[in-house]
Design brief:
This protein is mainly beta and 271 residues long. The protein has two helices and 18 strands. The chain has a domain at 5-188. It has helices at 207-215, 243-260; strands at residues 5-14, 17-27, 29-31, 35-38, 41-48, 58-65, 70-75, 79-81, 89-97, 102-106, 110-112, 117-126, 131-140, 153-162, 165-174, 192-199, 222-228, 234-240. The radius of gyration is 18 Å and the shape is globular.
Length: 271
């Protein structure tokens, strides 16, 4: 099946420096040259040159980090999903992390406009001893009526395997037509949702208390919950009414984890 956009990347460790050794992109996906905000760790920006996602679009990203490689992948701007009258937008991503590697995925929000349908699936394969930070966030786009949740539906699946054993399966499904998204056990009065998964051998047993203290300052701006994965990693879900709140929380959690890895705070410098 023909893809609207394809991106493949491989990062390898050469001495003490990680380099992007292999890159392929096609269609609406492009990728900028790696930027070294930290001397030994590249930050890569993926670009969408089509201006937005429309019905029937299909995208795939494949990322491989070899042993001890470190890389941050982000996007140039938010992904905008417009009306999809005939077919939904499909987006898939596979991530493979070798032992000792560190991968951080920090994309801009997904914005779903009126009558948008969007489905994404991410499959992550990790070797024991690798580190993963995977985030995403979703927000309703502008509508003529001014009402939120005018999209048809959003579906997002994340599967995390460690040494071929399934450690986490997250399925987020938002369908305003069938559910009052402001209700209990849905969005509970909020309009934006964000998720962050952290798996790392550096995540020590007392992480819950430390993370709780870190997030206390956001109690007035968001509702945040976190839990332990089977392998000791953690998942964080954030409900808020603004994208920047979710972005700030994810950035705080990311830099908290980076400090445990003896890495400097992340700097994306997009604006």
């Amino acid at each position: 099946m023909r893809m609207t956009g394809t991106l493949r990347m491989k990062a390898v460790c050469r001495g003490e420096k990680t380099v992007v050794a292999d890159t392929y992109f096609d269609g609406a996906f492009k990728v900028a040259r790696p930027v070294y905000f930290q001397e030994n760790e590249p930050t890569v920006y993926s670009l969408h040159v089509g201006g937005g996602y429309i019905g029937g679009d299909r995208y795939h990203t494949d990322v491989v980090l070899e042993q001890d490689a470190r890389m941050t992948l982000t996007t140039q701007s938010a992904a905008k999903v417009y009306k999809t009258p005939n077919a939904p937008v499909h987006q898939s991503m596979t991530i493979s992390l070798a032992q000792g590697s560190v991968f951080m995925y920090l994309p801009d929000p997904l914005i779903a406009y009126e009558q948008a349908r969007f489905q994404q699936e991410t499959v992550i394969h990790m070797e024991k001893g690798s580190t993963l930070l995977y985030s995403d966030s979703m927000t309703p786009g502008w509508s003529k009526s001014g009402d939120p949740f005018r999209y048809d539906w959003i579906r997002s699946k994340v599967k995390i395997y460690e040494d071929d054993s399934l450690q986490a399966y997250d399925h987020l499904f938002l369908k305003p037509e069938e559910h009052d998204l402001f209700s209990l056990m849905q969005m509970e009065g909020y309009t934006h949702v964000g998720s962050l998964f952290i798996v790392s051998p550096m995540l020590q047993k007392d992480w819950q208390e430390a993370l709780g203290r870190l997030l206390e300052s956001y109690n007035e701006q968001a509702r945040i919950g976190f839990s332990t994965l089977k392998n000791g990693g953690c998942t964080i879900r954030i409900l808020a009414n603004a994208s920047y709140v979710i972005e700030n929380i994810i950035l705080q959690c990311t830099n908290w984890m980076r400090s445990k890895l003896d890495q400097e705070p992340v700097q994306l410098r997009k604006y």
